[in-house]
Write a structure and sequence with these properties.
By secondary structure, this protein is α+β, with helices and mostly antiparallel strands. 22% of the residues lie in helices and 37% in strands. It contains ten helices and 28 strands. The strands form four sheets. Strands 6-5-4-3-2-1-15-14-11-10-9-8-7 form a 13-stranded antiparallel beta sheet. A seven-stranded mixed beta sheet has the order 16-17-18-19-20-21-22. Strand 10 and strand 11 form a beta hairpin. Helix 2 runs antiparallel to helix 4. The relative contact order is 0.09.
Length: 490
């Protein structure tokens, strides 16, 4: 009998001597200290966190590299613990209000982003970057999530500048926490792959803690990306309890829907002759591919290095053994040029405008090792510039034209592509044709397309865009665009 009992005791003793377990024990001590300091030892949270501040955003604006300050306000409502919460955020861009909502309950996360037209559902087995962004909005949510989900990955890192550092893995991401000796969580950071700018460190800092209704909670928050301040906010709190569990305010009834099977990530469609559309269904975006006798020309490099690689592979499957000779980007925004580096690495010449050259020359050298890039090397891209109308040959036999539109209100410089054989005009995100056939007055963007057609006089029958590929018609016609333009004239 002694042997039966001594064996487990021996095993436990050996486990406790292992370095990994010792590191876990030290990290768990630091985590528990942070939880006690905040006063959230019991995960029965009922509180609302209100944040008011400024976002210093960059990337999706008229000029490459431009930063715009936008107000950013949100309310984060916990109910019956940190596993259940509702986030409503508001911002203003060009004097227009936008909002997004996130609803978390159990293993499901429902969200609608600022510019989305529909709700997305994710589950704990299909995490998204939004999990990380939301979790780091407030230390209460982050600490409780670590305690509930990630204890096995806890490790002690060491002491730095008066803080103890521990690490843990949440939703597949390795986070580092810096905790003061008194237990105050000062900083959370993680290495991430940014679709547009590549590998970078996200850093979240919490400060000015104050006693608040039995808790110790921060009153200021700062977020840094690539070492630059991206967001700064001030917290206030409402500790009034939620007596009834809120319904899903983002998507009522969605919790009852079966999990939908995602579409195939990449699909290909022939548009006539040697012109193809490559649809990135997961990202609601597309590229065009024109196959010439000797090489391939691609139109639009959407979203990310990984997405760009997907288009490269799909194009090469359409035309094995043919190089990608050219890639045209309509404008510099990430959902249209974010995958450019994959094409330049494949040897493609970049068709763009003069105002994009400096930025894109830097952009194609951003590191993307987290997205599958091998050891980065310096690339000096070759550019073909368009400032009016220019005719190109895709591998000597397939002619296409590229038109310069100038300021579209969306960006200061913009390009369109025209394929004379198919009589198709291709834009990035300027024209939108309703699925129900309704005709709305042409926006400033759509008017820019109309002006380009009037100026360069291509014989257009169909008008395709790169984004979106859901929620609108696959393409519009010249007649439909004319109706929109006539509605403005009236």
């Amino acid at each position: 009998m002694l042997t039966l009992f001594s064996f487990p005791l021996f095993v436990c003793a050996q486990i406790q001597k292992q370095p990994e377990y010792g590191s876990f024990q030290k990290a768990r001590t630091v985590l528990d200290k942070a939880i006690r300091f905040a006063g959230i030892a019991a995960d029965t949270l009922n509180m609302a966190v209100m944040a008011t501040g400024i976002n210093h955003e960059s990337g999706h604006y008229p000029s490459p590299g431009e930063r715009i300050d936008m107000p950013d306000n949100y309310t984060l409502q916990f109910f019956q613990g940190a596993a259940n919460y509702f986030l409503k955020a508001e911002t203003t861009y060009r004097e227009r209000p936008y909002n997004r909502q996130v609803y978390a309950k159990g293993d499901s996360l429902f969200f609608r982003s600022y510019f989305a037209r529909s709700v997305t559902r994710k589950t704990s087995d299909s995490p998204t970057g939004l999990f990380n962004e939301v979790l780091t909005l407030h230390p209460v949510l982050f600490l409780q999530t670590v305690r509930r989900q990630s204890l096995t990955s806890l490790r002690y890192v060491g002491k730095t500048a008066g803080n103890e550092s521990i690490s843990t893995i949440v939703n597949g991401t390795l986070f580092t926490l810096q905790v003061a000796t008194n237990g105050q969580l000062n900083q959370v950071s993680y290495l991430a792959a940014h679709d547009y700018y590549g590998d970078n460190v996200h850093t979240y800092q919490y400060s000015a803690y104050r006693a608040t209704g039995g808790f110790r909670l921060p009153t200021t928050f700062r977020e840094y990306e690539f070492g630059a301040l991206r967001k700064e906010q001030t917290y206030t709190y409402n500790l009034k309890s939620v007596t009834e569990l809120p319904v899903n305010q983002v998507c009522p009834g969605c919790s009852l829907l079966p999990r939908s099977k995602p579409d195939k990530d990449v699909t290909t469609q022939n548009l006539g002759g040697n012109l193809y559309a490559i649809n990135l269904n997961q990202f609601d975006n597309r590229s065009f591919v024109l196959i010439g006798e000797k090489s391939i020309s691609v139109f639009e490099a959407p979203l990310s290095y990984a997405a760009g690689q997907s288009v490269v592979r799909a194009a090469q499957q359409l035309a094995p053994n043919k190089p990608i000779g050219q890639v045209m980007v309509t404008h510099h925004h990430p959902d249209h040029a974010g995958g450019l580096q994959a094409f330049v690495e494949a040897g493609a010449e970049v068709i763009t405008t003069k105002g994009n050259v400096a930025f894109l020359g830097q952009f194609v050298n951003f590191p993307h090792q987290l997205s599958g890039q091998t050891a980065p090397k310096t690339i000096i891209p070759s550019f073909a510039l368009v400032d009016s109308s220019r005719v190109f040959n895709a591998g000597t036999s397939s002619e296409f034209s590229v038109y310069f539109t100038g300021n579209t209100e969306h960006t200061n410089e913009y390009l369109l592509a025209y394929f004379p054989t198919q009589k198709i005009l291709f834009h990035g995100d300027l024209c939108f044709f309703s699925e129900n056939g309704e005709t709305s007055p042409a926006s400033v963007r759509e008017q820019a397309v109309g002006k380009a057609i009037a100026r360069y006089k291509p014989e257009v029958e169909k008008i395709y865009g790169s984004w979106p590929i859901r929620g609108y018609k696959a393409f519009g016609t010249k007649a439909e665009l004319d109706k929109k333009l006539q509605a403005v004239a009236k």
